[in-house]
Write a structure and sequence with these properties.
Its EC number is 3.2.2.-. It is an enzyme of class 3 (hydrolase). It holds the Pfam family Pur_DNA_glyco. Belongs to the DNA glycosylase MPG family. The chain is an alpha+beta fold and 229 residues long. The protein has a domain of 157 residues: Roll (3-methyladenine DNA Glycosylase, Chain A), CATH 3.10.300. 14% of the residues lie in helices and 25% in strands. Strands 1, 2, 3, 4, 5, 6, 7, 8 and 9 form a nine-stranded antiparallel β-sheet that branches. A hairpin with a 2-residue loop joins strand 1 and strand 2. The longest helix has 11 residues. It is globular, with a radius of gyration of 16 Å. It binds a DNA duplex (13 and 13 nucleotides) through strand 3, strand 4, strand 5 and helix 4.
Length: 229
DNA sequence: ACCACGATCGTCT
DNA sequence: GACGATCGTGGTA
């Protein structure tokens, strides 16, 4: 194995301290970590393979740009560790991990996940219906992964570091579930974020992170992506 | 009250 | 590659 994605003990919940950093630091660290979703139908465990940082009041791409503190963005201003979930285009949901201290709006958009086991994949396919053909179609994209995990606004504000939550984060490397492939596909690339042309100069900063050659990644940016590890 | 728009996706050409 | 779906949100009046 080339490198461990985190310094935290494998298999347990990510501790509160994991979230006490900027979104820009947390975004690459979230790659490889395990997202756990408890639903009526069962538990889904998946590996995060693509993230984007939305950090601070100066980021023109962020909902909290300029310190905009409203009913929707309130969760972003809370302490790190909560889920920020919003509706986009009237029909899809997006999942974010809030980071940083109280009153500093930082969040990491989860853009793609991959199921850890065939059982996890079966349940995700059930939620996605007939649309999921290739891996990317199953959960490669923020709206798609929320559909695949049955995530909507009713989970906004859920604490990801609590074992009681229906949505939580565990450290990579559960013994029964090897976190990364052993073939070099845990190489992390950085590239500009997706679909934020309105963010002006912030539209080009390389704040998207994803695993090279991972089939679940939503958009491959061959021209502008570069290695960070 | 009104209105323009979006951290997307699926379909069609 | 282009386009429409669909509605909550935030800015403006």
């Amino acid at each position: 194995m080339k490198s461990m994605p985190s310094n935290f003990s494998a298999g347990g919940l990510l501790p509160l301290s994991f979230y006490a950093v900027s979104a820009l630091k947390a975004a690459p660290r979230l790659l490889g970590q395990t997202l756990v979703r408890e639903t009526e139908e069962g538990e889904i465990r998946c590996r995060i393979v693509e993230t984007e940082s939305y950090g601070g009041v100066e980021d023109k791409g962020s909902h909290a740009y300029g310190g905009r503190r409203t009913a929707r963005t309130e969760i972003m201003f809370g302490e790190g560790g909560a889920a920020y979930i919003y509706l986009i285009y009237g029909m899809y949901h997006c999942l974010n991990v809030v980071t940083g201290p109280q009153d500093d709006p930082q969040a990491v958009l989860i853009r793609a996940v991959e199921p850890l086991t065939p059982g996890d994949e079966d349940l995700m396919r059930a939620y996605r219906g007939s649309l999921a053909r290739r891996p990317m179609d199953l959960s490669g994209g923020p709206g798609k992964l929320c559909r695949a995990l049955n995530i909507d606004k009713s989970l906004n504000g859920v604490l990801l570091h609590s074992g009681d939550s229906p949505l939580r984060l565990e450290a990579a490397g559960t013994p029964a579930e090897p976190p990364a492939r052993d073939d070099g596909s845990d190489i992390i690339l950085a590239a500009p974020r997706i679909n934020i042309a309105y963010a002006a100069e912030y539209a080009e900063v390389p704040w998207r992170f994803y695993y090279q050659d991972n089939p679940y990644v939503s958009v491959v940016d061959k021209n502008r992506a570069f290695l960070i590890n």
